[in-house]
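Lab notebook page, bench 4
Experiment: in silico fold of construct C2
Operator: M.H.
Input chain length: 323 residues
Purpose: comparison with the prior construct
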Amino acid sequence: MNEPKEVILAEPRGFCAGVDRAIEIVERALVKFGRPIYVRHEIVHNTYVVNDLKAKGAIFIEELSDVPPGSTLVFSAHGVSKAVQEEAQARGFSIFDATCPLVTKVHVEVAKLHKEGFEFIMIGHKGHPEVEGTMGQLDSGIHLVEDAADVARVAPAQTEKLAVVTQTTLSVDDAAGILAAVKARFPSVREPKQQDICYATQNRQDAVKLLSPQVDVVIVVGSPTSSNSNRLREVALKLGTPSHMVDSADELQAEWFEGRSRVGLTAGASAPEILVRQVIDRIKALGAISVRTMDGLTETVKFPLPKGLKIDGGEVAPLQHLH
């Protein structure tokens, strides 16, 4: 049997600034206010991260009615609808918003253009919490399209003022195809000044495009609910490289590597580096001898934390983190 010989790591991979910030918000809230801290929806879509925070005292809920009065509540990195924000305020929770600033940017744009009389077409995945949060910024006038076929069925009340917004974690190429269909049907549609797909999603997809032709199989570390992780697997498959997504090293299957000497490895924006290390160890146990990291962008984006999370009057050293 031919074993894997080499592991090539994509660069960049793993945690993005929005995920780093969201996890740190929950960790700091636990240190400052004590357990439990309630979090609406998984803080980020990663099983390991969620379980780690549960062990530290975070309780994840979907319904605000499950949160006792007077509790501290954190909104997940995916963002929430206006209705959820208003209900949380009405219930009197102490709220910290871990919504990724790049998602908040989309919310702000929607609110601003809505005031100017715009309706919206949103490109995204039905049922994803980010889509529910963005569409829930308005009571009406925002229409979801998941593919080019949906564009033909959209029925806005008017077409003079129509703007397009996008879920931040989509495939760059898929979104471009759907946007082309939107523009073909609504030529005067207004596009965002900078595309909504976030820098981290784009960078990780670009890295997989460089990685895929160099390897015989691509492994993506990410949880099944993670949109951006799923897209990484699809990018590799579209380039003709067999690709598998795993939540942990236990899910690797030896037959994936038979006759495939070069293994490409990446991780979604919500997957911690510790999982990547465990996957490398498992692939080494199957026969890989060398590991190298391909050249790639170094991301320097940092997002500030919300006010009220400083500890003991000053900034603390970063908490024990999941890198």
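Observations: The first strand starts at residue 6 and ends at 9. The chain is about 35% helix and 15% strand.
Next step: discuss at group meeting.
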